[in-house]
Design a protein that fits this description.
- The protein is 36% helix and 26% strand.
- The chain is α+β, with helices and mostly antiparallel strands.
- It folds into 3 domains: 7-53, Uridine Diphospho-n-acetylenolpyruvylglucosamine Reductase, domain 2, CATH 3.30.43; 58-173, Uridine Diphospho-n-acetylenolpyruvylglucosamine Reductase, domain 3, CATH 3.30.465; 180-284, CO dehydrogenase flavoprotein, C-terminal domain (Enolase-like, domain 1).
- The protein has a 5-stranded antiparallel sheet with strand order 4-5-10-6-7.
- Strand 4 (63-66) and strand 5 form a beta hairpin.
- The chain starts with 6 loop residues before the first strand and ends with a helix.
- Flavin-adenine dinucleotide is lined by residues 29-37, 74, 101-102, 106, 110-111, 113-115, 117-118, 120, 123-125, 161, 166-167, 191-193.
């Protein structure tokens, strides 16, 4: 199918892009990698009047590490992040999760800003942002604001971004030493969206678990952390029984929908098993 008619601006500068967004508001969609937007337009699931192409805003394509943070520009391609030594050093959870994201041609075009703004509930990067405690930097003609990942994902394909805002940067706290991590998922085929995915982070203090983070994709209308499962592990002795208990709690805490790929019961089973395995793997990596 072909998309409905639309007008088009190729942004030549940040100021121009923000002005177009301010003027067009709800009428307008930002075109980044086009890997989600274009199929949705072709299927007539969305029909923006206007497209704002930001691919010329190359100043938004970067990865840096400074001030104790990994900073990623909104237009940075998945492939850049997957292969980045800086990402591997400062957010190894992201590097591991990229082993599950899409296929090379999609990763070569798709961007982290587009991925997070699209807010697919099965997206691995949303779970990574939650587990890592990322902060989104949104810019409009009115200025800049920061949104915690925990407040960013509001529902299926819905975020806290206003229609006139551009996601310009994502900041991940630099990975602290002595913390283990793991990302695991089950998907129908390699490179497909997750049926269920889990991002786990774990530290140890005096032999007990601390700073436990368990974030999930594919378990509901948005990626989410499961606080009950985290609290069950926090302060406990890191062993198989504790990690299995956390898995049971996670499986019970979610209320997933069924679809073509999996019914709710299977998703609960996956959350239970993947939580246990991810915690075991994260524990084994604590230096
Ligand atoms: C075959 C296939 C397999 C895939 N598999 C996976 C997978 O396993 N896991 C996964 O997570 N994703 C997967 N994807 C999606 C892919 O990761 C996309 O890159 C991503 O979802 C959207 O990024 P994009 O840059 O292409 O954004 P676009 O498609 O250009 O835009 C998506 C949405 O975000 C908005 N937007 C874009 N950039 C910004 C910005 N900077 N600020 C504010 N709003 C913005 C757009 O207006 C639009 O609403 C797959 C896609 C395909 C086609």
């Amino acid at each position: 199918m072909k998309p409905p008619p639309f007008s088009y601006t190729k942004a030549e500068s940040m100021a121009q892009a923000l002005t177009v967004l301010a003027e067009r508001g709800d009428d307008c969609k930002i075109l980044a990698g086009g890997q989600s937007l274009v199929p949705m337009m072709n299927l007539r699931l969305t029909y923006p009047q206007h497209l704002l192409d930001i691919n010329g805003l190359t100043m938004l394509d970067y990865v840096t590490a400074e001030d104790g943070q990994l900073k990623v520009g909104g237009l940075t391609r998945h492939s850049t992040l997957k292969n980045s030594a800086l990402v591997a050093e400062h957010c190894p959870l992201m590097t591991e999760a990229y082993g599950y994201v899409a296929h090379k041609p999609v990763r070569n075009r798709g961007t982290i800003g587009g991925n997070l703004s699209h807010a697919d509930p099965s997206s691995e990067m949303s779970a990574v942002a939650l587990a890592a405690g990322a902060v989104m930097v949104a810019r409009s003609t009115g200025g800049e604001r920061q949104i915690e990942a925990a407040d960013f994902f509001l529902g299926t394909l819905e975020t806290a971004l206003a229609p006139d805002e551009l996601l310009v940067e994502i900041r991940y706290p630099a990975w602290p030493g002595g913390r283990g991590w793991s990302f695991l998922e089950v998907s129908p085929r390699k490179g497909d969206f997750a049926i269920v995915g889990v991002a786990a982070c774990l530290g140890l203090k005096d032999g007990a678990c601390e700073t436990v983070r368990l974030a999930y994709c594919g378990v509901g209308d948005r990626a989410r952390r499961i606080g009950e499962a985290e609290q069950a592990v926090e302060g406990g002795k890191p062993d198989q029984a504790l990690f299995a208990k956390a898995g049971e709690i996670a499986g019970r805490a979610i209320d997933p929908q069924g679809d073509y790929h999996a019914d709710p019961e299977y998703r609960r089973d996956l959350a239970t098993t993947l939580t246990r395995r991810a915690l075991i793997a994260a524990h084994s990596r604590i230096a």
